[in-house]
């Protein structure tokens, strides 16, 4: 459809003459689009925030640890506690070749960390150098525990964000400085700014992480392993390996292989699948509510256009009498509907994006964004196309009625 400048002026003039009705109708469309954009962006941000609780963990990761047995086995009573040992890592490598990474994780509990006059109740953990491949850190200063630290049992540590802020309130790079944890001194080699993650032994920002070989010497744990973190090779589904992993460890320690309490496996793959399914449902509800609100706004546009056509019966009749074709009348009414819907809808999109941007800024701490509360480019394109379609549909019925008005009938009504 082609229009000249006078046609557009007439459209705007008609909308202006019906200010109150146009405002109410436009507000309905504006609010519907605004709600849709905010719901989509908010849902995306909420999903990222929940996923950050598992930040850095691969989807095919499992954590393994032992507890008291709940079943008797080969003459042993239930209630025994059996700890894993370093040889269990060798057994898993040999008997479960589908595993990619097998790395220990040691729990040290809460210990008082001290630097000068400052102190903080931190959590001590011992890791191997390849633990970074299971849960990558967010290094703000320095580096993470490396292979030489583990081999030589160096007295070094990586501190979490909260530990850093409490022990070094003046800021600056703490690498090279020493901290005391209980009676042992460690040299800081890095600051991990990760604040979310699966809490294995404590919050990531409250950890003091040391080489696990040093942990064994410091806390005299021998060859005991508190827990193991394992990942599957590419293409391997971890849930298919958990029973075999449990069986390998159980047989070495005379535990019933079916005793899931004695040898506990925490499979992140299942959690990620549950999270995805949850937000698939949430996204469906968001679109359902948003589109429903848009349809309500489109119905409002259609109603106001019907009223406008009824009030302009004489005008339309006169235009028909002086030569206006039904196609011209149809184009006029549908254009008014599309313009009204488009202006209100695009305003809703812009305002929604602005609100989401403010939410993003509010969730940013120390220059690190907690989550992206924004809609994607194609989402905005789809919303725009949907608005155009709704605008056309909303004006279809009023335009058809206007097109069917005959000059004689219009004069008679007058």
Automatic annotation (TrEMBL):
Domain MacB-like periplasmic core: residue ranges: 22-247
Domain ABC3 transporter permease C-terminal, residue spans: 288-407
Location within or outside the cell: Cell membrane
Membrane spanning stretches: 21-42, 284-309, 337-359, 371-396
Topology with respect to the bilayer: Multi-pass membrane protein
Assigned keywords, A-Z: Cell membrane, Membrane, Transmembrane, Transmembrane helix
InterPro entries, per the entry: ABC3_permease_C (IPR003838), MacB_PCD (IPR025857), Macrolide_Exporter_MacB (IPR050250)
Alphabetized Pfam families for the sequence: FtsX (PF02687), MacB_PCD (PF12704)
Family (UniProt): Belongs to the ABC-4 integral membrane protein family.
Protein name: ABC transporter permease
Organism: Xylanibacter brevis
